[in-house]
Each structure stands twice: as structure tokens, then as C-alpha cells.
Amino acid sequence: MQTETSGSPQKTSVFKSFPKNFWTVITMEFFERGSYYGVMSVLSVYLVLSKNEGGLGFSKESVGFLKSFITPLLYFLPILSGAIAERFGYKKTLYFAFIIMSCGYFLTGTFTSYPLVFCSLIITVIGAGFFKPIISGTIARSTNVQNSGLGFGIFYWTINLGAFLFPLILIPFLKNISWSLIFVMAGIGTGWLLLLNTFVYEEPEKPASTKSILKVLSDAVLVLKDFRFIIMIVIYSGFWILYFQMFDSVLWFLKEHIDMLPVNAAVNSFLSIFVNNPNWKFDAEHVTVINAGTIILLQIWISNIVKNKKPLPTMITGIGFGTLGMVILALSSNAWFFITGMIVFSVGEMTAHPKFISYVGLIAPEDKKALYLGYSFLYGVIGSGIGGVLGAYMYVNIIEKMHNPPLFWSIFAGIGLLTMAGLYIFNKVVTKKK
Fold first, then answer.
1. How many domains does the chain have?
2. Model confidence over 223-241: pLDDT tens digits?
3. What stretch of H or E contains 335?
């Protein structure tokens, strides 16, 4: 993400160049992502928490299986839903997405049995999967060559701003009253967007050509035949096995093995300057806050550092930082080590992922760049599909049964090292055969 902000007159004119539809979908993105990350910041904790503590009491293995099903679905659906939206209209698809999402969140907060919660979360991610491509599609049609970079930069910041503010402000307040209110919040946060869609959002001009679902599936065959692309996606997915631990095993580890009193004391000492007797506590939702907050603060700086660097070496460097984050967790259960590990991992994410997107654009055939960028989301399908089950299984067997957290995090660090090695070999061997 690169957003230039120097020169006030020029900056003002660029911001004014965005039409109403752009700011409408930016607002939609903020509330939808805020609702989503607000729920996901604590979902895995809520599902395994005992019923006496307000949770549902599911086993970690069952939660790992659930997450390894719903998250890949979320990453895969936009490939198909984008084609559906192009054929039937963005506005109609948004109605469907908001209704489905809102109902899914409300139902998840109501149900207590595993099968019903599983089904309600599937409903939720179907809605989110239909929502995702419409926003990027509208932004693409609401920007031009001059303001596209800034437009998508605002889009990226909006995602992280929602992921930062909702878990920071709303989640601690709501869960202290009732965990179910978190899902009510998400249901309202996405449901009210129906009004925005009805009265403010305008259907973009229909593109010159549309694709049928059959065409989308046939395009998949073309992409899957590109062995260089598929090999790179599979290798890069290793990093996302690590990433998806941030929403599962990292949260369990924090709740069960990290004493955050030193961090709480430091933060409350600072807050006492402004308020009397503050009682702030670091909890599961703040892992997402750290990730999003680090990206908000450092993304532009890091993007400027690596903007002229080659994609694959930069990706390897970023994955190296992510791996170092896992190593830090393996070294100590100290609260400050935990915070440092989360920050370092976030630096790795914001270093590697933008360059990954850039690299996909570079290796894609000139007439199939959009197609390749769509299927590049397979990294999330593979990474979350493996990460949820693997993380839960190892957590139970290595941390709970063997009482060996350093081994657990070292294994994930090993996955990171293997990913780095795989991309290095890919860079040296496969790309030279181009």
C-alpha cells in the first residue's frame, strides 16, 4: 500500500476526486470488517470456554475442524461470487450478502450446539464471501489511473481500522455483559448496511463482458495448468498456516499460559495520567488489535522501504520476520515477549503480503492478470484449511498433554523456515526456467 500525502492542495483535490460510491463502499468495508474481526478476535476463545464462564465448551479439536472449514470457504467464495455479482448486479448481491451475514451472526449468538453453530458460521462466511469482491470491484470502477493507488490504500487502511477499533473498544465492553452481545453487535453492524445499500449505494456501470459460473470454473483449469503459479501458491501458503494461529492457538495460549499483569500495570500506569483508577486488561481480542495497529502505524513506512525491492526476496524476508515471531513465543511465556512476538509477526505480514500480490501480477500472463489475482486467494484456502486443524491438534497434544509450549511454537517456526527455503529454491530454480 502506498499513499502519498505530501502537498496539501494536491491531496485535497485527490480526495475530492473520489465519487460518492467510493466513500459508500469504504463505509461498508469499515463496518463489515470491524464486525468480522470483532467476532474472530474472540471466537475461538468463546467456543472452548466452559459454559460456566459463558462459553460453549467445545473441544479445541472440534473448533480447529470448524475453522478449517469456514475460513477456506471465505477465501474461496469470492472467486465464484465475483462472477455472480457481475451477472446479477452489485446492488442485488449486496442485499443478499448483508441479509445472510447479519442472520448468520445473530444465529451464532443464539445457538449453543456444535452442529447449529457450525451451520450458522457457514451462513455468515457465505455472506462475507459474496461481499468481498463487490467492494474491490466498486473501488476499481470508482477510481482512475491518477487516484487508484490512494483509493486502494484507503481501502486497506479501512480494513485495519475496523480490525483495530472494534476489538479494542466494543468487544471488551460487550463480553463483560454477555458473550452473545458480540454477535448481536456484528449482526447490527452488517445489517444496518442494508439501509446504506438501499438509499446511498449506486449500481456501477455494467462491464462490457460478464462471465458465467461455468466460465469461471473453466478458467480455473487454465490457472491450475500453470505449475509455476501453483507451486508458488502452495509454498507461500506455509506462511499462512502460521498466520491463522493468531485466531486460534495464540488466543488459547494467551488465556491459559501468559500472565499479562506486567502489561496491564504498565498500561494502567499510563492511563492514570488521564483517568482515576483505570482497570484496563489485556485479553484475547487485543491480539487482533496489535496486528491491525502495527499495520496502521508501519505499513506506509515499510512499503516505502521495500517498494523497489524484488518481490520474492522481500517475501522471504517478511516470512523471516513472521518466523521470528514464532521463535520469540517459543523462547518465553513472558508477557512482553508475547507482545513483541505479535508485533514482529505483524511486521512480517505487512512486508511479505503486498509483495506477494505484486509478484502474482508479474508472473501472470498479460491477458489473465485479473484471473490470476482472483485465484491467488488459494493461499488462504490452503493456509487456513491446514492451520486450523494442525494448530488445534498440536495444541492439545503438545501443550496440554506434553506441557511443552516451546516445542509447539518451534514447530511453527520450522514451517516458516521451510516456507522460506521453498521460496528461495523456487526463486533460484523455477523462475530461471521461465
1. 2
2. 888 888 999 999 999 999 9
3. helix 335-363
